């Protein structure tokens, strides 16, 4: 499927309809929430925004502030500030808010973590051009960690499975990295939204498997639990995506990005965090409510889940330099 085409200007002086600029046709959506008050996260955010260069006007950023915290990017164009009291992973909920508010001219949506830097300054128009031929992509092939500490660059999921589709349903260490940045046709993501119930993280990974039609592969139970309420909710979301759009054609850009490390990798507990939440009896339909800003809050019955996730974010130690963490 191709993106909708805008009218091209006529050359004979008659009535013309001008094609929107790249910044009008592509929306870069990001979010920021900093419940632990990390200064490193703020530094990374500002570096990310500055790194967008001339494409900064395309950025639509939703910032979620806890009580008493001030905006880290006050004055940024297209900044939407919301509020929430609960400590949990708001990312995909905030990205959904960003997509809901986009102008009609936007044809493609790129969602980016706010701790990455793109090496090629023209990655935005390249992403738009590529999305004429594919439905979803990662706008990079390799990501380098900063500081590198001898780490080899990591390949993106989209790059790996585009070149070898058999990798799509394998485990994480085999199929490439599912995070950092993605681009998608607006009509696809607007119809189903981001899966936003992974309130301790991990949604980018499971959404990537849904894009490739592998939402029930071996990767999913370690991330969402086995026959958990969260897993069933995810599968229902993936089934809606498949019913409305079928198999998505995936691509990537042959470009590199840098990821600015923050905190402890061990503290993230990637393969056990949602399992711990499952063991607490987590049920998204019972334990999550939306507040007046449409952000997630814990329901009154979510006492165990509230304590577990708050402790999880505390032990991530976001302000500790990566090379100092053991």
Summarize the structure in words.
With 326 residues, the chain is of the alpha/beta class. Helix content is 34%, strand content 17%. The chain is built from 14 helices and 13 strands. The strands form 3 sheets. The chain has a 7-stranded mixed sheet with strand order 3-2-1-4-9-6-10. Strands 5-11-7-8 form a 4-stranded mixed sheet. Strands 12-13 form a two-stranded antiparallel sheet.
Per DSSP E runs of 2 or more residues, the count of β-strands stands at 13
Structural classification = alpha/beta
- CA(first)-CA(last) distance: 47 Å
Name the beta content range.
15-25%
Rg on CA atoms, Å? 20 Å
- Unreliable runs: 1-18
Helix/strand order, N-terminal first: HEHEEHEEHEEEHHEHHHHEEHHHEEH
Helix content: 25-40%
Compute the average pLDDT.
Answer: 86
- Principal-axis shape equals globular
Please give the largest β-sheet: 7 strands, mixed
Strand order of the largest sheet: 3-2-1-4-9-6-10
Give the count of helical stretches. Answer: 14
Throw out a few tags for this protein.
14 helices; seven-stranded mixed β-sheet; alpha/beta; disordered N terminus; globular
Protein topology:
Blueprint (H helix, E strand, L loop, with lengths): L21 H4 E8 L5 H13 L7 E7 L13 E5 L7 H10 L7 E5 L3 E3 L4 H8 L5 E3 L3 E5 L7 E2 L1 H7 L8 H4 L5 E5 H7 L10 H9 L8 H5 L4 H17 L4 E3 L3 E5 L4 H4 L4 H7 L4 H4 E3 L5 E3 L4 H13 L11
Parallel strand pairs: 1-2, 1-4, 2-3, 6-10, 7-11
Antiparallel strand pairs: 4-9, 5-11, 6-9, 7-8, 12-13
Helix pairs in contact: 8-10
